[in-house]
Amino acid sequence: MPRKRPEDAGLYVLYLRITRPIRTRVLKLGYHHFEAGDYVYVGSAGNGILNRLHWHCRRTKRPTGGRKIGKQWHIDALTVHDAVELLGVIENRVVLRSKRRECLWAEEVRAAVAGGMPVPGFGSTNCTLGCDAHFWRVTNGVPPRSLARKVGGEWRPIEYCLLALRERTGRRCGRREVWRRVERGTVRYG
Ligand SMILES: [Zn+2]
């Protein structure tokens, strides 16, 4: 029996904020410098976007299910860093028939953020369209909600995602400071 496709499978933008300049090693791409600012990463999640966000939230990427390496994607090098905050995801629930679709959408996202590219090859190792990267700096200040509208997705702030994950897993994941905001009722939905 084929496994049921999760209803939130599709493409997503992970919207991150780097709070101070950092230098870190991006797997085989080597050491790179990242200015403080907002960044977007485009990926696809056949097992569900929320499920993938669960992975992105983890500060340590421990091997699971026989996987030999902890870090799997370039983006893992940033999501484990203490200067990196996850602001949320833009969901685009499409049927993932080809990598091409992801790459075409990534190009739209890049245009919408006037993307500066800090690391050539970041997130684009398996691209068939020859993308330079699937990760860019937001250089035009577009807020995530407006970006979502421009590229045809739904903005899901991190607080919303963590509450949904807790409902699904019965556990809290993600950063303590985010949960403090949720509990204080000072959640930002911008
Ligand atoms: Zn691509």
- Gyration radius, rounded: 16 Å
The helix/strand order is EEEEHHEHEHEHH
Class computed from helices, strands and strand pairing: alpha+beta
* Proportion in helices: 25-40%
Mean pLDDT across all residues, rounded?
Answer: 88
Placed side by side, the strands forming the largest sheet appear as 6-4-1-5-7
Structure, described:
There is one protein chain. With 190 residues, this protein is α+β, with helices and mostly antiparallel strands. It has one domain. Helices cover 29% and strands 22% of the residues. It has six helices and seven strands; from the N terminus they run E-E-E-E-H-H-E-H-E-H-E-H-H. It has helices at residues 49-57, 76-79, 99-112, 144-151, 158-169, 176-184, and strands at 10-18, 22-25, 31-34, 37-45, 84-92, 135-137, 154-157. The chain has a five-stranded antiparallel beta sheet. A hairpin with a 5-residue loop joins strand 2 and strand 3. Zinc ion is lined by residues 103, 106, 124, 127, 129, 131, 134.
